[in-house]
Amino acid sequence: MKTLIKTLVALALTSTQAGAWAQPAEQGRVIANADNYSVLSYQDRIGPENRMLTTRLTELLPQLMAETELDMWLVINREYAEDPVYYTLVPQPTFAARRTTMLVFNRLADGTIERLSVNRYPLGEPYESAWAGGELDAQWQALADLIADKDPQRIGINVSRDWPVADGLSHGLHQRLQEALPEPLEQRLVSAEDLIVRWVETRTAEEIEIYPQVVSLARGVIAEAFSNRVITPGITTTQDVAWYIRERFAELQLPVWFMPYVTLQRKGQGCTDEQPFCGQSDKTIQRGDVIHTDVGICYLKLCTDTQELGYVLNFGETDVPAELKAAMAVGNKWQDHLTDAFTVGRTGNEVLEATIAKTTAESMITSTYTHPLGFYGHAPGPTIGMWDNQGPTPIRGDWPLYANTAYAIEGNAKVPLAMWDGQNVQIMLEQSALFDGEKVTYIAGRQTQWHVIR
């Protein structure tokens, strides 16, 4: 066994084992179920979502447009081909771009932002209608006249080679915009990708306040699923548990952004140091199994991405084996090395490099693939490793860390178990966290103790 693993396992197996585990890793939190957390109806979500949008447009957008040196930002899309960033900018309830929808953000001399719409159907607050009604050619001419009247020097449009979220202006609309503008104005069009990434990755004080409720709901449903409420050892399959999670979120009116999945690990299955993932799906859960899930929901426009672990007690066992507790501690230690490397201005690639240096020095077998969270589960911002690339990630890995950004602290550590004849168990963890510019705080705590199925 590696040096660190030996130390942790020895600690877990000492005669003072109970005392050793009395203090779990920092920020550990156990959430028993989702029943203790309120979920607003769809109707009741409209007010808070729109208030948060207005705050973002009033306070955050002026700051970011100044930071990225844009005088105007155009968001142009149409029904059935909505721009990815469109839904982060419009009031609820909004289900589509009506015909061709044009949003114009114009920065004034005092730094404030005019929020204008050039649409067949006015959007209403928080937008002022600069033109409404009429036919499509008149709409494009109205947009061109508006831009000419405002005379911006740098006009941001949503085109990007490297950031999908910033590439929402379709080819056809891009062509139409170029045709509508006189050449001097057309020459002022620039990519708005820096603005869009900053807009999507930045969390406001209001969003930070509600985010723990969102993440707690995700963790609560996992706790329900990884319990005897759902699992009967020897009968329940991993697919049964995955569908419980999916249907429970539907019952709570919480949309998932990917199908939850559940895998298991067990003695004799094999898990080499080089294997990227060791879990198996479509299996019947048995006693002695380690189970794992990956879950993502969105609520009040904020998304989560969560992975946790459970253990199915063998007949006669009354607690999770000490070796598995030690393995969880290794996973938490990997998380600590990663989050300790968070520094404003440091790139995702630099955070990854610092994390690998730490884990390598302690002979840990780890893999880091952490990403930002927010309006999307896989949000833009600094990529910190990828499961199939533990080296630098061009472009997205070069993006620096900013304050008030959220992340899925995602990765795994492999730990050999004597109880499994030296076979590795893979501790796959993913917990939502906020970086305030100084420290990383888990939004609803993190898993430091195993879910137990008896």
TrEMBL record:
Residues 216-381 form the Peptidase M24 domain. Pfam families: Peptidase_M24. The keyword Electron transport does not apply. Residues 1-22 form the signal peptide. GO terms for molecular function: aminopeptidase activity. Keywords: Aminopeptidase, Hydrolase, Protease, Signal. SUPFAM superfamilies: Creatinase/aminopeptidase. Transmembrane segments: none annotated. This is Xaa-Pro aminopeptidase.
